[in-house]
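FORM 7B: Structural annotation worksheet

SECTION A. Query
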Amino acid sequence: MGAEQQISLLGRIAVSAKLISQEQLLEALQAQDHLGATKRLGDILLELGYISQAQLEWLLRAQQTLLQRERQVEAERQHRANLEEQRSGAEDGTATLPQAETSSQPQASTPRSSAAPVPAQTVPSAQAAPPMLHRILARGMQLGASDVHIHTGLPIQMRVGGQLLKAKSAPLDPAQSESLILEILTAEERAAFGAHNDLDFAYTIASVGRFRGNVYRQRRGIDAIFRPIPLQPPTLDQLGLPRSLARLTSFHQGLVLVTGPAGCGKSSTLAALINLINEDRPDHVITVEDPIEFVHRSKACVVNQRQVRKHTESFASALRAALREDPDILAIGELRDLETISLAITAAETGHLVLGTLHTNDAARTINRILDAYPPDQQSQIRAMISESLRAIVSQRLVPTVDGSRRVPALEILLVNIAVSNLIREERVFQLRSVMQTGRTLGMCLFDDSLLDLVRSGTISKEMARRHCEDPKLFA
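SECTION B. Predicted structure
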């Protein structure tokens, strides 16, 4: 049986066993077609969150069982045909078939054109014999942890409300830590980790969520950090962001950047903006991520998501290819090098809306960071390009609330108008703060003003505001 038939068989088994619906199978097959059948159907169903790892393993076993059964039935059919040929060719016509072949009971067969019957095994539920790490990660989701830490020589730890909390458990020895982590990796991921001693990947637990994982080796053993990612993209309201940010999705070309330090929720904000576009515009969206975090199912838009080192070599190679793939919107997980930044600006200038993230703390530093990526002799030209293509910069930080139960975003919002463009072009980026201060009625905002609003509403304390502000005098 060819590879195409085996793939079809696994899908038929999954539908027959009611693990997925026919619509979910069609969506997975469409995703596989887009990848050029370079990825197994079962792995795609797992990444989409339609099945669990235990269910995938059961499906593979069931597929193998059915393939073996089909081969056996075919062999028996051929054997009967041979015997019949021998009998009909015998001179006296009295050849006798073996008892097993003259049985009146019909032989079972699997019609290839219909849904495959499921072998008599117990279909595992999403919770059937899960890896130990599943329970740990599910608990992290229940607690609202932003990160789950697995460290050799230490108890399991979770970051809740910005604080790293230790579980009431014994420290993990090297063997325990290695077993917990490696158990959930695929063979390809284990090989990549073995080659490089660190690995970025995404992991899905059905009905729980997706996780962005990073595994690395340190002197005590193997460690891992998991960041929970809900199965559905968030909304602006769920993230505590102002609804006015929805205006950023109305642009049809240009560059929109979401910036901030690591762990401040940039990816979540970017996902919320993509989700708004996906609900309202009949466009083609291509995302390039490392790894894929939120899964966007095509709604009004056609959404294609590519993962660095899995579906493409790098951010830059994906962007070069994307310009020939008729996109309307490009979403870039991180503008991390000169080539990626340059391609993003080029795409924004050539009629695409480009959304991306940067590890910078505010609007002025973001612009300077982009300019500093270029050689000095190119900065004047790039400055002019940015002044024309930049549409907005949203910088954010997460600040713990008064009760410490959660973190809320404090924002700096720069909306590019003629005055801002002129400041960028004329090398007067240092004056952006005054423009944002006077442009509050236009929707602009400084970090300090955002923090002040949070203090006045009683959401955060003045002490916490002073830790994150630019001008402590405001919170004296």
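SECTION C. Observations
The chain has three domains: 3-86, 132-229, 236-475. Confidence is low (pLDDT under 50) at residues 1-7, 89-116.

SECTION D. Sign-off
Analyst initials: ____
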